[in-house]
Every structure is written in C-alpha cells, then in structure tokens.
Amino acid sequence: MEIIIGLVLIVLIIVGIYLALYLNKEKHLKAIKEKLRAVGEIKEVKANAFDLILTVNNQQVFVKILLLGIHKELSINSRRHWQVDASTKKLKLLKTGGFEKIKGTKILLVSPPVSSIVKYINENEVVFVKCDELCFDFYLFTTDEIDKIKEVII
Q1: pLDDT of residue 142
Q2: Which candidate, 9, 44, 24, 15, places its Cα nearest to that of 111?
Q3: Could you list the mean pLDDT of each consecutive 10-residue stretch along the chain, which spans 154 residues?
Q4: Nearest to residue 74, comparing CAs of 100, 61, 93, 59?
Q5: Distance CA 136, CA 133 (A)
Q6: Is 46 helix (H, G, I), strand (E, B) or coil?
Q7: In angstroms, what CA-CA distances link 42 with 51, 53, 143?
C-alpha cells in the first residue's frame, strides 16, 4: 500500500512539473505574440519550419520562435545547423524544421535573450550577429529587439 501511495505521489509531482513548464512556455509565447502585434498583424500557423506569419508594411515575414531556456550562447553554423552552449561538453544542435528551405523574408526570434549570438563565416572566423543585418538568409532578433523589426523589414 505504501508503495502505491509513493508511486502516485511521484506521478503527481512529475505531472505538476510538466504542467508548470507547459504553462510557463505558453505564458512566454503569449507575451511574444503581444509584442509582435504592436509591430504588425500576426497569423499563427501549424508548421515545423515556422510559427507565425507577420505582416509588416504589406509584406509577409515568416517568423520562427526559438525558446532557448537557460542557455548562454547561440551559434549559427550554417543555414541548417544551429547550436547552443549547454554549459556542458555535450554539443546541443537545434532542429530547424525546414526553416532554411522557406523562400521570402524570414526572422528567427530568440527568447529569452542570450548573452551572445555568433555566426560562423568559415571554419575559424566568427562574427557577432546584429538584428539589422542578414544572418545567412534570415534576420535574427531577440525578444528585446522586437520593436526594431519594423525598421529592418521594408
């Protein structure tokens, strides 16, 4: 009987943690969408490659939201290979979901803002990414830079 009660408590704790993480993620996404609504009209889509279509100045922009959690650094190795510094020796590659195949104006929106975002030019050259310049074939913004989208997308 005590084993059953212990198992039920463990299951309840796991479900509670999962639910808290899910609700926090949804709250964070809602805040991002509200900021984007101040920039233009948004349309939510169900696609692996992107999350939203943002219409700014009568131009459609495909937006992929990248929730990184507690990671400190994002590096864009190529159009298809992105990785985060997981503060361990293990390399953590992110899935692009086909974002590199989209034709048109694209934005990768990073949340929460990380301490540094770098782009590899070649095997041993790296540059810091700024929101007003292309990173390969897309623009890269953090949630702190959402208000600058209108200035960059013409």
Answers
A1: 84
A2: 24
A3: 88 92 85 86 84 86 83 80 73 80 86 80 82 83 83 75
A4: 93
A5: 9
A6: coil
A7: 10, 6, 16
